């Protein structure tokens, strides 16, 4: 069923407003922490009225939970697209994993503040959004698991691979390496970092000489 132009326009405007709020929230929370960040500050940074925040999100916690869903959803989509693009070009499963590593680095380079928050929140246990975080994390990891499973099925990878742990390790490798790159080795290019991780992938997963 097609929406009217008015509804579509309203939906587009609301999405644009929510995007502004996501960007304001992630920047402020990365700068000063969740507890210290107020709804007033988020509204001011986004350039909207305080009531606009509550119109779109019931509370600051809900805003942050939706921010996590939104950000990890973008990451998951970029990983999936990289894998599908590689498959469409006839690439191997190692090629697909390599493309996903690059897609992850590109995402983190574009959204460094979100990545810092995401990694930090993964290790907290007293947050209201912990269950949501675990769900969206698994969605991202599952994309890598699918490629590993297909590689095992077609004989490209060893059947002894622990698929869930290997997928989590690959995602973790990209997240931590990218944050280390940005914090301590910012002079290195994305291509340089990708090349280093690609060599690690080739040696640790494919077993190629």
From TrEMBL:
Transmembrane spans: none
Pfam families: TetR_C_24, TetR_N
Listed InterPro entries: Homeodomain-like_sf (IPR009057), HTH-type_TetR-like_transc_reg (IPR050109), HTH_TetR (IPR001647), KstR2_TetR_C (IPR041490), Tet_transcr_reg_TetR-rel_C_sf (IPR036271)
Domain HTH tetR-type stretches: 15-75
Keyword terms, alphabetized: DNA-binding, Transcription, Transcription regulation
Statement: the UniProt record of this protein carries the keyword Transcription: yes
Keyword Transcription: yes
DNA-binding span(s): 38-57
Protein name: TetR/AcrR family transcriptional regulator
Lineage, broadest ranks: Bacteria, Bacillati, Actinomycetota, Actinomycetes, Kitasatosporales
């Amino acid at each position: 069923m097609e929406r009217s132009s008015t509804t579509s326009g309203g939906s587009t405007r609301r999405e644009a407003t929510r995007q502004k709020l996501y960007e304001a929230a992630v920047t402020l929370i990365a700068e000063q922490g969740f507890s210290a960040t107020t709804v007033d500050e988020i509204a001011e940074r986004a350039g909207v009225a305080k009531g606009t925040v509550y119109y779109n999100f019931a509370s600051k916690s809900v805003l942050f939970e939706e921010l996590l869903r939104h950000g990890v959803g973008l990451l998951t989509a970029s990983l999936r697209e990289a894998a599908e693009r590689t498959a469409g070009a006839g690439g191997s499963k190692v090629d697909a994993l390599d493309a996903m590593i690059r897609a992850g680095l590109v995402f983190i380079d574009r959204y460094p503040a979100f990545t810092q928050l995401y990694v930090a929140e993964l290790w907290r246990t007293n947050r209201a959004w912990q269950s949501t975080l675990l769900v969206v994390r698994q969605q991202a990891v599952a994309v890598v698991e699918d490629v590993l499973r297909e590689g095992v099925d077609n004989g490209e990878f060893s059947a002894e691979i622990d698929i869930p742990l290997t997928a989590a390790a690959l995602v973790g490798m990209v997240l931590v390496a990218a944050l280390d790159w940005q914090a301590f080795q910012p002079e290195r290019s994305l291509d340089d970092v990708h090349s280093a991780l690609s060599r690690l992938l080739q040696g640790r997963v494919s077993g190629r000489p």
